[in-house]
Structures are given as C-alpha cells and as structure tokens.
Specification:
By secondary structure, the protein is an alpha+beta fold. The protein is rod-shaped and about 215 Å long.
C-alpha cells in the first residue's frame, strides 16, 4: 500500500553585509624653533708703532750738519784752541823769564812759531759705521671679546586628527522559508 508521505523543505535565510572601512588622517605640524642670536663683539684697540731714525751724526760726518751744531762745534774748538794758545803763551813767558838757561830763547820761540802746525777748527763730525741711530717701538694690540648668545623659544603644536567612521550596511538576500507537502497517495480521510 502506498502510504502518503510528508515532505518538508526548508531554506535558510541569507544576509548580505557591506562594510566601508573607517578612515583617520593624522597631521603633525612642524614645531617652530624661534631662535635668536646675539652677535658677539670684538673690540680692537691698537697703538701705532714708531720708527725713529736719527741721522744727524751721518749728516755731520758728511759736512752737512745743522747750523746750530756747526756753531756749537766752532765754539767748542775755538775754546780749546784759545786755551791751548794761552797755555803755550804762558810756557813761552816762563822760558823768556829764564832766558839765562838758553842761548837765544827769543829766536827759538820765533822759529817754533813759524814751523808749528796750527790747530784746525773741525766743523765736520767724526765718521763712523754706526752714525745712524734707529729706534723701533712696536705698537700694542689689545682685543676684548664679548661672546654673543643664542636663545631658543620653541613652539610645539598639537597633532590634527580627522576621523571618518566606517559604515556597515546589512540587507536580506533570501528570505527563509519552510515548505510542507504530501507526496504519494491521497489523503481522503479526515481524522
């Protein structure tokens, strides 16, 4: 006998999910340093060097001395010559006073006066290899240094953060269902 059978058919529901990822953007502004520099200072003080050249002795040895120097030399030489002559006159006077010691004192004095070398007045200086005096005085250099400085005043900034949240979208692709049917013979009886 052919019994009726019950057929049950079931289908699960299917869901669809679409997601959009969230985004975040982070920006960090650069810090500013704000550096100030004070210049260092250097102060230099200097005295000039001096070079002194005294060539009066050299010019004097060449006979080109200053007139004041020539006058002084003439006066000095004249004084020495006159003192020498006074001493010689005094000696000759002493010789004449003792005329009895010599045969002819007056003739000897006259002969000595004729043939003696006369002193000269020197207006030219004495020559020498070191007649130019050179004196050098070096200058002085004084330096004062004042160092500068550097000051920093940095400024930092907070990061800028932008966040865009993601989305989730869910939807139904297929609805669930249960289907029941009778297969096989006929079911006429009511129970």
């Amino acid at each position: 006998m052919n019994f009726p059978r019950i057929q049950i058919q079931q289908e699960y529901s299917r869901l669809g999910i679409e997601t959009t990822r969230g985004k975040h953007n982070i920006e960090q502004p650069r810090p500013s340093l704000n550096m100030n520099q004070q210049q260092g200072e250097i102060e230099v003080k200097r005295t000039n060097p001096t070079l002194e050249i005294d060539s009066r002795k050299a010019w004097s040895a060449l006979g080109i001395a200053r007139i004041v120097e020539v006058n002084d030399r003439i006066a000095q030489s004249s004084m020495e010559i006159s003192m020498h002559n006074i001493a010689e006159i005094a000696r000759n006077g002493d010789r004449m006073m003792h005329f009895q010691k010599s045969k002819n004192v007056f003739a000897e004095i006259a002969r000595d006066n004729v043939f003696k070398a006369r002193p000269r007045v020197e207006i030219v200086g004495e020559p020498g290899y070191d007649n130019v005096d050179v004196t050098f005085t070096p200058g002085k250099l004084q330096m004062n240094y004042t160092p500068g400085g550097v000051t920093f005043s940095p400024e930092t900034y907070k990061p800028v953060v932008d966040y865009y949240p993601g989305k989730v979208n869910s939807y139904l692709i297929q609805k669930n269902y249960i289907s029941m049917s009778v297969a096989g013979g006929q079911l006429n009886a009511v129970v």
